[in-house]
Amino acid sequence: MGIRETLSLLIFLVFIISSANSDQRNTLLTFRSSLSNTAALSNWNANTNICQGNISIWKGVICVDDALFGLRLENMSLGGNIDVDSLSQVQGLKTLSLNNNSFTGYIPPVYRIGGLRGIFLSYNNFSGEIPDGFFSGMNSLRKVDLDHNGFVGRIPKSLAGLSKVREVKLNDNQFQGRIPDFKNRDGISLNFTNNNLEGPIPKSMKSMDPSLFAGNPGLCGKPLQTKCKKKSITKLLLIVLFVVLAVASIAALTMAFLIFRKRRRSYSAEPTKLGKKEIKGVNCCYKGSSRGAVQDHSPDTYKKAHQNGKLQFVRNDSDNFELGELLSASAEVLGSGSFGSSYKATLFNGRTVVVKRFRQMKNNGKEDFNQHMKRLGRISHPNLLPLIAFYYRKEEKLLVSDFALNGSLASHLHGNSRGKQSGLDWPMRLKIIKGVARGLVHLHKELPNQTLPHGHLKSSNVLLTSDFTPLLSDYALEPVLNKEHAQNFMVAYKSPESSRNKGGLGHKTDVWSLGILILEALTGRFPANYLKQGRGAHADLASWVDAVVREEWTGEVFDAGMKETKDGEGEMLRLLKIGMCCCELDVEKRWDLGMVLSKIEELKERDSEEFDSSSYGTEGDLSSYNSSYNNHIHHHDNIDNGNKDHDNDDNDDGDDDKSNKGLTDHEDFTFSVQK
Predict the structure, then answer these.
(1) What number is the average pLDDT over the span 383-406?
(2) Buried b / exposed e across 111-149, counting CB within 10 Å, b at 16+?
(3) How many whole angstroms from its chain centre is CA 669?
(4) Is residue 577 classed exposed, middle or buried when 0-12, 13-18 and 19+ CB atoms within 10 A define those classes?
(5) What does the pLDDT read at residue 655?
(6) pTM of the predicted structure, to 2 decimals
């Protein structure tokens, strides 16, 4: 090799070493930045070398042969976070000593630092448990000093399993339980004093100094003078006792099973007592009907029908359970609605779920049904009730979801006796409407090719969590329902476009349903004609909307539960106008869902200084609403006349009990806009 090549190689090596040293310095400076009270490390400087031979230039660094070997940052009053990720990038780091500082919290994850031989964390304020496998893989460790801290829990077995460890100081902590066996460790130094350890000391430690176990009243056996209590029960007696307990357990389980089966039989023999008892729950908010015979909706009904089979879970973030556990769980009837009966079931682990039983899903094959349910299971949004699991049988299906603690929006708007306020003030109703709109928009984004992404939006299908966050339920079921049943009962088929054009349903039909829901939430009036079957019901809903927008307006249009709201009438009026725009009879003129959401998101709990209503329609527009709805009603006043006095068995997840007059009155509204 020539002189030129030799010089080039030397220059290259110098460059590599210089670059490595620079990286090392920057890494240590990053580590220092995570600490507090670092005045003692003020001479750490990116422009100076760390080591010179065996002498450290940077304080606290141990150097060997001009290279970093360890960090001895002791007695420096350091605190803050220990950036182990930075330390793991420091080349050659073999020992880390942070003794006598002010560090707190859990033990830092030093197992990320490869090749560590010594870890010294004594005299700090570390606390918490050390995971049992914390030291797994740290096969180079020789010394571990954790004394004089606040560690609790058991001593990690992975520490006792290290083959090269020669010194372990665990004294003056709060470790509990038994001492793990450090087997075959001649010459190992251990200290367990002043903890809460108990039980017999491992035989491998019987020749150690007794003082190393002092301060643990629960320890016994050599080298201590305290003897462990001998078990007085012989091996034979243990075997006999085990057999007796086993036989007794089998007998108890057999008796419990017989009693359980007897109770189930006696329970199923009793008729379901819905009567006029108020049922509060997920999909129920009205008083049960006392007219005519009531179908058997007892929990045993669905349990008996599904003794054999398997639940299909559609989400990965939910704890699975067996069908048998669901069928044997304690259950109660929530209600019976247009789609089926609902049951509240409490599982063995305390989790409460709702099982909805459908009988009108027979037009789809098993594979198509499974795929549709799995598609719904993949949809996730804070305002959509997630489907947990489903069960398929040809005759009927079960859908399982979580239980909503505060029932439905309908139960809060209409569940109280007449004359009492619902308990929902204006801010709460605005929160609910915003959540409903957000959930509906997400549903439309997830199911763009489905004609009716929801199709059955109404107040009894808006469930409320413990903090009144709304959850949309019973969505996207139109593709798996019997067509005739869907046309008779689904909200979408009560829309204006449904009667004018049998093929006219679309995404804006959900907008119409949202508009009805908004008006219902603001006025506190129940759109009673939802209870009528068939397509003709939309004409009656048109008259219901007309009653809201007829003639002149005042604040009397709003539900009494919102009357105490101060400085909010303008925002309420804005939302009322948004609801009217959603209920536009002409689908082409009706707002799209994106426009509706953007307008709703602009609303606040209190009025702004000036209310510009131009973007929500003018007063002339309001009169056109009146004229349009009146014309529409006259056009359809011969539709479904035979149903006007019809007592409908479909009670909208409850009943259309006429005694609940506040839900069905159609007295005139007289309003005037206050400018």
Answers:
(1) 89
(2) bebeebbbbbbbbbebeeebeeebbeebeebebbbbbbb
(3) 43
(4) buried
(5) 36
(6) 0.50
The C-alpha atoms of residue 593 and residue 480 are separated, in whole angstroms, by 24
Contact 470, 517 (CB under 8 A): no
Instruction: Confirm if 65 and 53 have CB atoms less than 8 A apart.
Output: yes
Query: Within the chain, what is the greatest distance between any pair of CA atoms?
Result: 111
| Structure tokens, 632 | 């529409």
**In the chain, how many H helices and how many E strands?**
16, 25
Distance set, CA 366 to CA 344, 363, 370, 566, 601 (Å): 26, 10, 6, 55, 41
| Residue 273 predicted with pLDDT over 50 | no
Contacts of 79 (CB under 8 A, 6+ apart): 35, 36, 37, 101, 102, 103, 104
Task: Report the relative pairing of strands 51-52 and 174-177 from DSSP bridges.
Answer: unpaired
Token pair belonging to 193: 């004093």
| Closest among 23, 19, 16, 31 to 113, alpha carbons compared | 31
Determine the pLDDT at residue 502: 55
pLDDT at 149 over 90: yes
Note the pLDDT tens digit of each residue in 482-519.
888 888 888 888 888 887 665 579 999 999 999 999 99
Place of tokens 């709003």: 558
Please tell me the predicted confidence (pLDDT) of residue 318. Answer: 65
- Region for 495 from its dihedrals, namely left if φ exceeds 0, alpha if ψ lies in -120 to 50, beta otherwise: beta
DSSP structural state of residue 177? E
CB 343 within 8 A of CB 400: no
CATH 3.80.10.10 positions along the chain are 3-220
In order of 131, 487, 570, 646, the CA distances from 283 in angstroms are 46, 20, 32, 23
Task: List, by residue range, all CATH 3.30.200.20 domains of the chain.
Answer: 299-402
Find tokens 């549709």 and name the residue: 372
Tell me which of 1.10.510.10, 3.40.225.10, 3.90.79.10, 3.60.10.10 is the CATH number of domain 420-647: 1.10.510.10
With a cut of 80, say whether residue 539 has pLDDT above it: no
Strands 143-145 and 167-169, by their bridges, are parallel
Q: 245: pLDDT confidence band, cut at 50, 70 and 90?
A: confident
Rounded Cα–Cα distance for residues 72 and 62 (Å): 7
Architecture of domain 299-402: 2-Layer Sandwich (3.30)
Q: 116 is written with which tokens? A: 């560590």
In this structure, are strands 67-72 and 61-64 parallel, antiparallel, or unpaired? Answer: antiparallel
The strand pairing partners of 198, in sequence order, are: 218
3-220 fold: 3.80.10
For tokens 């069908």, the residue is 323
Banded pLDDT at 183 (limits 50, 70, 90): confident
Question: What is 377-440 written as a DSSP string?
Answer: HT---TTB--EEEEEE-SS-EEEEEEPPTT-BHHHHHHSSPTTS--S--HHHHHHHHHHHHHHH
